[in-house]
Design a protein that fits this description.
Distance between the termini of chain A: 9 Å
CATH architecture of chain A: Orthogonal Bundle
Distance between the termini of chain B: 15 Å
Number of strands of chain B: 2
CATH class of chain A: Mainly Alpha
Number of helices of chain A: 14
Order of helices and strands of chain B: HHHHHHHEEHHHHHHHHH
Helix content of chain B: 55-70%
Radius of gyration of chain B: 24 Å
Order of helices and strands of chain A: HHHHHHHHHHHHHH
Oligomer: heterodimer
Radius of gyration of chain A: 24 Å
Largest interface: A-B, 133 and 124 residues
Strand content of chain B: under 5%
Helix content of chain A: over 70%
Strand order of the largest sheet of chain B: 1-2
Number of helices of chain B: 16
Amino acid sequence: MSTPLQQGTPAVATARVAAEPGGRRRRRSSSRSAAAYGMVAPAAVLLLLFLVIPVLLAFGLSFTNARLISPEPPRLVGADNFVRAFTADPTFLRSVLNTALFALVVVPVQAGLGLVMALLVNQKLRGVTAYRVIFFVPVVTSIVVVSILWKFLYQGDGLINSVINSLTFGAWDGMAWLNSTATALPAIIVLSIWQAVGFHMIIWLSGLQTIPEELYEAARMDGATPRQQFRNVTWPGLRPTMVFILVTITIAALGLFVQIDVMTQGGPVNATTTLVYHAVRRGYREQQVGYGAAISLIFFVLVLAVALVQRRLTRDKD
Amino acid sequence: MATVATRPPGSRRPLEPRGPHTARPAHAWRSYLLMTGLAVVFLFPLVFMFVSSFKPDAQILSDVDSPRAFLPVGDLSLQNYADVFDRVPVARFLVNSILVTVLIVGLGLVVNSMAGFALSRMQFRGRKILFTVIIATLIVPFETIAVPMVYWVSKLPTLVFEGFVLKYDFGWLNTYQVQIIPFVANAFSIFLFAQYFSTIPTSLDEAARIDGAGWFTIYRKIVAPLAGPAFATVAILTFLPAWNAYLWPLMTVQQETLRPVMVGMQYFFQLNTAWGEVMAYTSLITLPVLLVFLAFQRAFVSSIAASGVKG
């Protein structure tokens, strides 16, 4: 019963679109081909120049000592960059650890909270659309704006401390959340979830609405409680949505950059440095493009692994 | 289930409430309580930002300890806004961002819909492989290629005017084109167009061919006008990242006159912790997007939904 379109990623649905060609091969197919190439060409050339070639460059450069601005041409250095990353660059290892920690917390919390919110706003209640819009507002707010704003909220004399202070009737002294190695990363986790969870609420919501109403009617006729309806109708129907959401959150979480760049620059003492932040620091700010490319490639391998796990999950369960 | 699945991306129903929980007053108040609590959490930072943008710095800091932080009370003025315009060429940043965003979205609609049209409705050698390659590129996050791409664009040839002479030069850094051209073609947009176009009957094409219409005419006069929702979805999905661009212009544009708003704000923020002015700047670039969102709230939400589950 499950159709390709419900399986989650665009990649899975390819087959469907590709299998429905415009029509049979006809006369004048050469002029048709020429016209088709003409229409595909602009997009194809741009994707080649700004996606395919950069990907190949990432591979190529990661085995060289290329620098951003250098009179000397890049020289092949074998796997030196990768050896350096794993043995001689503690900041890189710290970046991997922080990125993993961030993803480990953000993925389940953001997915779970998004689902709870979707269930709330999926009810037939008055004014529910207004809540939906409110929950979505941070998503359309730039993450740069959000990071700057929350930097103020997290200050020692900022809003968060004063709220905690009044909730505890003055027992709280306040702390500079972003200046402590213990709280900096958790603080960034909170604002990241705050900004993005509305997006995933909407995805969950559209998943909820692919579940036919008749299934709920049937379940009610069988006397199922709301809890049983959720477990036996809603949850199984949400599986493709769940896989999609987990994968998109994971990939986005692994790419954490803006919040770090605006709020902490990786500090204090590397407590918030991340893979992408480190790649930009080494590859762009310190101009070691070859080494930066190697770090980017390691990041890409992680993303690829996540995507492969997703493919496995969707294939096995169908 | 099949009817749900084959519905093209832009045309899905607006997300109407349905599901197991019908309105049951006994439980409704609990839902309202939860939702209102969440609404407060999602809104308080933004309300604080807008309200503070009208207050002097000293008052922002003293108001933090009371509910006045969220109320437009005390010494309100547009002084912070005036100061922002005095200190940095923020109008120039806004113009830059609008220019870049409009061109990315506009050119993207043309280029990607043409590609989607050819890939979904025309036969040609290499069609399947091309489609597969385009979809495969969706797995590459921009952050992976950002650093190598800076290196790449710094070596690309370009045309420049020197005086009145058109010259050939190398390096795209510090230009408008470096902010625009790499983001025009978009694999996901092509996919959405191809998917939508494939739901429009091909008999229309055949009939037009018999009347002597060329393929470009069929695309422009027949198929594109029927695909309004797909164009709206793609426009919305490409608008936000273009307006919010940060990492890329941060690395490729140092020249202040070419800077987009987000990077301009970060520089402003680094040099300056006058919070009132910072809040004025952030409000200034958030408000237009927020108003556009509220006006087209339905279209935004269904576009995001379209980008998700059904793939």
